[in-house]
Amino acid sequence: MINEIQIIFAYRNRDTARVRLSLESLRLQTYKNFKVVFIDYGSQDVYAQGVKNIVNEFEFATYFYVGHPGLLWNKSKALNYVIKKAQSEFIITADVDVIFTEHFMESALRLAQPNSFSLFKIGYLSKQVTKQQQQQFNLNQIQTSHIEDTFGIALFPKKALETVRGLDEFFHFYGSEDEDLNQRVQMAGYKLKRCDELMLYHQWHVRYPKKQDNVLHIHPRLTNVVRLNQRHFLWHKAHCKVQTNPKSWGNCYSKADLKSLERPDIIIQLDNILAHVEHCFGVVLAHHSNSIVQIIVSEAPYYKSLKYKLKQALGKQTQSYMTMKAVNDLILKEILYRYRDMNYAYKVTENLKHIYFTIDFKTRPDDQN
Fold first, then answer.
1. I need a labelling partner for 179 at 20 to 30 A (CA). Which of 149, 211, 313, 352 fits?
2. What three-state secondary structure class fits 201?
């Protein structure tokens, strides 16, 4: 007899209307023996307070705030935080865009098996239908634009997720973390079952703007990150990887950890000179292994000057400069490859002229295996 099923939502800086509709659909379930754990991973205060108030309206849901706004969005870390602490035998990984039909949990109960996991079909709603549902919830004779198989809405035995050490925490921003998890769970010996009954609907939203990854923005974006994530997943698949996280998987920082970064031991100020930035991240940081270090990279006035442009046009020798977007991408890749498990804060100023990266090297995990 299954004691309870836990549903996990990961969230950051999204509109609250879709959250309310998703939770309202769960309130109407015919099977009631489930709990929702809602993880807010580093939302800004204006979003965090609003969504917390909504989640607290539902007696079956519990809100947690983990991480902080200085960290990059990492769905894997958010979900792993709950997976590692979960008390239930089975876990459903969900999404705030999803509306559940009233018998979804009843069906999930029947599908729950210790040696398999289940993926579901989902119907996509148009912008107009989504707006109508958010204004007046009614799934009778609902129209979908198309139906697809899901990768990220899944029912797992908790043991399966523990066996593979959760979602790979390399994945940042968007893409492939769900496919990667499903592949590794299968590699661990669990059978994939696909449920053909349509029991989920996806609320419309603007698609992830991949083209905006190529321009600098105050909200961190990394050029080609979707392809990078896809390559990481395919590499795991080719090499039959099962466990990809260290034993310390599932740990998250807090708002208090962000406050500790406000008092750096060392401040390094750089212009956007290519050699200076590359040398700092390639050499200098390695010499500050027990400190809180803040690096401030600023766009030098000379970089946009007529003198510099003339020297470039005439082919005269001069320092090579980086665009601030190139600086952004270099630092973000350093975070992904080297610093993702440490406490750090990343910020681009409103005028896009300065980038702040602060990191506490004392938080480097001891366990990397």
1. 211
2. strand
